[in-house]
Amino acid sequence: MSSILDETRIEAFAGQIVTDVGATLGTALVTIGDRLGLYRAMADAQPVSAAELAARTSTHERYVREWLNAQAAGGYVTYDAECDRYVLPAEHAFVLADEQSPVALAGMFQSAAAAFEGRERVVERFRSGDGLGWHEHHHDLFDGTGRAFGANYRANLVAEWLPALDGVVERLTAGGYVADVGCGHGVATILMAQAFPASTFVGYDYHLASIEAARAAAAEAGVEDRVSFEVARADDYPGGGYDLIAFFDSLHDLGDPVGAAARASSALAPDGTCLIVEPFAGDSIAENLTPLGRSYYGFSTLVCTPGSLSQEGRAGLGTQAGERRLTEVLKAGGFTRVRRAAETPFNLVLEAKR
């Protein structure tokens, strides 16, 4: 075997496998720490013992110590052997313990764990070619996605993305009419409503449980007088004359994205704008073979592509469609001008006009 195979490469790949198994188990451990408030209880960045952390969170010390050791081995917390104390660095707390942080990523782990839950059904879909609808997944997928996307939207939507669109901020400030298609839990819709009190917003999603969650969130935010959420598909929602129609990380999930683009094009007011926020991707597979691309392809295989294949049209764009392919979809739906208005490390932001 040694004369045929490179033993160094074998050892390196075996090491990668060990790292990946640890990361896989780490996803479950992060969701446990998030749910039990362990990160939040360490957010002061001060040394804490396992017993102290257990007391703060009303949990069992033996479990907490093992969890802390796994966190230390993964580099999430630091460990001081001399005093037998653990520290969650302030920078890590900003990511894991502060839900209002622009880089609050605990929800991403929640989504990943929920996607993993559906793997047995995805195995069967690999064989049959059938789809697996969004509604068929564990509810943590819906909650985690809303949390993870929400952090990004809070950081960028009002401050960067909307100002990058031609004339949109002015129209919303004066009082516009906005549709959020595939709104999920309504995070982006509510953020826009809070920023533009003269405008009216409606969110559409086929998933009833998400619409109910969005309605509750709007009431909690105090914007339910200007925000409504309704069950509807992306190609048959009611109304017209919208100044802005937005697809926040939803276009690639649709079975018929061209049909959704055509509906948006026909529903816009004269000189209205369509905003499309999608996962960041290059136009070629090779460009997307990165750590971020790995995560996106993983979610795409387990959630997004099966979701599209469960719908009429079965386009299966996937999370790494890229600007060129998205532009083709939008133009096939009737838009004549499409441009990249903004981007982040996580997102492509496109503006489409008729």
UniProtKB/TrEMBL annotation:
EC number per UniProt: 2.1.-.-
Record has Lyase as a keyword: no
Pfam families assigned to the protein according to its UniProt record, in alphabetical order: Methyltransf_31 (PF13847), WHD_Rv2258c (PF21320)
Residue span(s) of domain Methyltransferase: 175-280
EC class name: transferase
GO biological process, one term: methylation
Domain spans labelled S-adenosylmethionine-dependent methyltransferase Rv2258c-like winged HTH: 28-96
Molecular function per GO: methyltransferase activity
Endpoints of the signal sequence: none
Keywords tagged on the record: Methyltransferase, Transferase
PANTHER family noted in UniProt: METHYLTRANSFERASE DOMAIN-CONTAINING PROTEIN, METHYLTRANSFERASE TYPE 11
Protein name, entry field: Class I SAM-dependent methyltransferase
Species annotation: Conexibacter stalactiti
Lineage of the organism: Bacteria, Bacillati, Actinomycetota, Thermoleophilia, Solirubrobacterales
